[in-house]
Inverse folding.
């Protein structure tokens, strides 16, 4: 309720209780004084005398009549004089303009705006005068308020007078016609019209509106004076919010059609700020959260999906790196929903589409399969093309991830919800690629062999971090482990790694990310390489102590590998049939003597261990002397040092005992060496087909190797290099063909079966008895960090454990359950 000031009135002199008091005469004095107060002619009035008159009336038990007379006086004054003044400021032009358009209509002309301001000014003046006059009257009637109103529990005369202003002024109809709105309704329309003008860019008198808002906040809809019944809330605010919703609904439609998404977001943010300022300077701050909700609903909540999916929406912003606009979209949706569902869905969809495009491009690049029956030069190029496509896929994935990481930090304030959505979408499209684990291992392999060359420590750290991030996305980590062990094994055995320290750093990071079980075998491989160096040095000392000083003795560098640690693909040569797998390679006497010598040394050092020699992974440096040829200095021998595979060394040594011009067939070479056919073909291609390293000649000359082909020593071999490295066809790391892929999947499924059985036994050993559904759920939970177990595979492994009497079924259980058998 509106408040008033206080005055000090001296108490009346004693003796007022005696004598008679004429009520009508006393009231006439008071009424005359009240009229002068309202007419602003109260300078000569004696407030002490007026107070005594009111005091006497109350003292004579006439307080009720006095109270009613004062209320009636105010009603008459407001209903006649004040109404006339206010109605005078409502000309037909203004009323027709207000009635002829909605509260959010088109821009009014200047005359209507001025007429509205005059009406507001007159109402402001009436309200302020009424408050001032009633404050003075209340001082005169102070005793009545304290005694009569308190005893009868009536509202104070000031409160009653404020209610009379509401009833006689604000609820009075213009020209007494009920078809016209009352003053309060007209006030609402005028204020709303002024606000509309301001929203359209005009200047208005904010203070004038603020005073009238204060009036509405000081009056109540009933005499109970509860907060919820303020006229501002019950009369004005509802219409203000409704008209604002209509205005912003139309504005949203227009902006979506005429503006791009970035402009829409900026306009929306500006409108929210404007409404906040309007509530502070023009209306009531209690309206701030309500009008904010209206603007947010109409411009954000109900339109965010259309905005995001528009041509200039999030996809356009991401493509054109409009990070500031993306930040606006994020900020706006965060205002209406902290989960940001529309932005999250859009980002996930965009990432999945972009990732799917990368997957499709990679599959197109690797579409051509390598022929398995014949090794041709074009096939080698296809292998290289497929490997390049695999590496490019990983680089593109990293580039895509970096792109969205930058957006996440710059535009989305490192929001956790958005980060989770980006992570899930990235993981989804990565794991949808059937060869993601193989490609990522190839990427690390390529960088370990040549990618880190010339990089600083910081750049290497960044590279290792990226590799771990990629690994974090891979769901089938056991598949990745298979490929990584194979690639790491080849790097270590062939000396292809640029830095063993970086290799160990990578293993250490994997250990922190995935645990000891993941890296145990990888660490074992490094341990074997270290022990092999010690064995090589020890063997040299062992030979020296035997006193064998033969200068023609072959130097031996050995790698002893633990069979359970190293991948089979790295150490085996994949023979074509079972018979070849049982045959042992035949070494020349000089090499055999060295081999037997090392075995004797190893058995003395480690009793009970068996060595299985793998010639397909070794290399040898062979010094070759070619016949004399004419030169500037006469006839001169040519000597070259050839770096070849162990199998190529065995093939070349066969030609030492042949006379010039003699030949060996493929079958003869294989019979005298027992080299597996596929390895023999690859090595003969390197020695007799490759133009720059043609140490042997082949008849007939072709790229294919056949059983009837004959091979001769190329006495006319020429090279400008003293040292010649002869590589093996397709010896480098490459993506697998279909047959190899099937073999890898089979081995991986076998490995998964063992992991599932181990998990089931661990769970049942702890729980003793468990239902089938709970056992499957707990098994999936335990193994989910390694791979996503197949439910059918889990069922088969449970059946296998039952057959082997690790588990038994509980017969009387209502649901399928198992019991652990110790």
């Amino acid at each position: 309720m509106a408040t008033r000031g206080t005055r000090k009135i001296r108490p009346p002199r004693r003796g007022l209780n005696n004598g008679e008091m004429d009520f009508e005469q006393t009231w006439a004095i008071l009424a005359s004084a009240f009229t002068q107060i309202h007419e602003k002619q109260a300078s000569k009035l004696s407030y002490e005398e007026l107070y005594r008159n009111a005091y006497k009336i109350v003292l004579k038990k006439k307080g009720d009549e006095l109270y009613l007379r004062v209320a009636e006086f105010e009603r008459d004054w407001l209903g006649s004089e004040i109404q006339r003044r206010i109605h005078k400021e409502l000309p037909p032009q203004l009323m027709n303009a207000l009635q002829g358009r909605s509260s959010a209509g088109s821009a009014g002309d200047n005359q209507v705006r001025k007429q509205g301001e005059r009406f507001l000014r007159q109402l402001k003046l009436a309200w302020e005068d009424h408050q001032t006059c009633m404050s003075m009257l209340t001082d005169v009637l102070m005793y009545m308020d304290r005694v009569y109103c308190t005893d009868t529990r009536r509202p104070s005369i000031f409160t009653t007078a404020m209610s009379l202003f509401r009833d006689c002024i604000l609820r009075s109809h213009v020209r007494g016609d009920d078809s016209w709105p009352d003053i309060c309704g007209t006030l609402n329309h005028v204020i709303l019209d002024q606000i509309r003008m301001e929203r359209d860019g005009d200047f208005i008198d904010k203070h004038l509106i603020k005073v009238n808002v204060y009036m509405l906040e000081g009056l109540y809809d009933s005499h109970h004076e509860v907060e919820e019944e303020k006229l501002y809330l019950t009369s004005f605010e509802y219409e203000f919010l409704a008209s604002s919703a209509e205005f912003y609904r139309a504005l949203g439609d227009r902006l979506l059609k005429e503006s791009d998404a970035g402009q829409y977001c900026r306009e929306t943010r500006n409108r929210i700020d404007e409404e906040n300022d309007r509530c502070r300077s023009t209306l009531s701050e209690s309206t701030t959260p309500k009008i904010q909700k209206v603007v947010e609903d109409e411009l954000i909540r109900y339109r965010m999906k259309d905005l995001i999916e528009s041509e200039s929406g999030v996809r356009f912003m991401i493509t054109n790196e409009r990070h500031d606009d993306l930040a606006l979209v994020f900020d706006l949706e965060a205002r209406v929903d902290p989960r940001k569902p529309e932005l999250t869905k859009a980002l996930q969809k965009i990432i999945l589409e972009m990732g799917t495009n990368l997957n499709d491009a990679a599959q197109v690049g690797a579409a051509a399969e390598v022929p398995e029956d014949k090794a041709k030069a074009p096939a080698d190029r296809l292998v290289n093309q497929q490997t390049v496509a695999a590496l490019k896929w990983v680089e593109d994935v990293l580039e895509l991830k970096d792109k969205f990481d930058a957006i996440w930090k710059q535009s989305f304030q490192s929001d956790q919800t958005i980060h989770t959505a980006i992570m899930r979408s990235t993981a989804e499209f990565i794991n949808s690629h059937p060869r993601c684990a193989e490609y990522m291992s190839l990427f690390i392999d390529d960088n370990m062999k040549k990618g880190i060359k010339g990089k600083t420590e910081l750049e290497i750290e960044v590279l290792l971090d990226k590799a771990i991030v990629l690994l974090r996305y891979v769901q089938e980590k056991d598949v990745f482990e298979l490929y990584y062990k194979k690639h790491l094994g080849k790097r270590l055995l062939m000396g292809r790694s640029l830095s063993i320290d970086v290799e160990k750093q990578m293993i250490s990071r994997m250990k922190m990310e995935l645990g000891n079980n993941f890296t145990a075998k990888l660490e074992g491989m490094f341990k074997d390489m270290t022990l092999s160096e010690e064995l090589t040095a020890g063997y040299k000392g062992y030979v020296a102590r035997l006193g064998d000083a033969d200068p023609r003795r072959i130097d031996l560098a050995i790698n002893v590998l633990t069979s359970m640690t190293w991948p089979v693909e790295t150490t085996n040569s994949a023979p074509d049939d079972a018979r070849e797998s049982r045959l042992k390679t035949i070494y020349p006497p000089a090499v055999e003597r060295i081999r037997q010598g090392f075995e004797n040394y190893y058995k003395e050092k480690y009793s009970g261990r068996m060595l299985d020699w793998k010639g397909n992974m070794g290399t040898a440096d062979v010094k070759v002397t070619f016949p004399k040829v004419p030169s500037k200095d006469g006839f001169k021998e040519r000597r070259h040092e050839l770096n070849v595979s162990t199998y190529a060394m065995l093939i070349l040594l066969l030609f030492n005992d042949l006379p010039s011009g003699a030949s060996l067939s493929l079958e003869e070479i294989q019979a005298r060496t027992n080299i597996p056919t596929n390895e023999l073909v690859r090595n003969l291609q390197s020695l007799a087909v490759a133009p720059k390293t043609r140490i042997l000649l082949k008849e007939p000359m072709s790229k294919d190797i056949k059983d009837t082909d004959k091979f001769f020593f190329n006495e006319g071999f020429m090279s400008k290099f003293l040292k010649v490295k002869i590589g093996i066809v397709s010896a480098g790391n490459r993506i697998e063909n279909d047959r190899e892929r099937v073999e890898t999947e089979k081995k991986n499924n076998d490995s998964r079966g063992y992991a599932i059985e181990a998990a089931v036994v661990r769970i049942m050993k702890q729980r003793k008895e468990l239902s089938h559904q709970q056992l499957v759920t707990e098994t999936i939970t335990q193994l989910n960090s390694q791979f996503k177990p197949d439910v059918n595979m889990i069922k088969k492994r449970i059946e296998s454990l039952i057959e082997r009497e690790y588990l038994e079924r509980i017969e009387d259980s209502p649901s399928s359950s198992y019991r652990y058998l110790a």
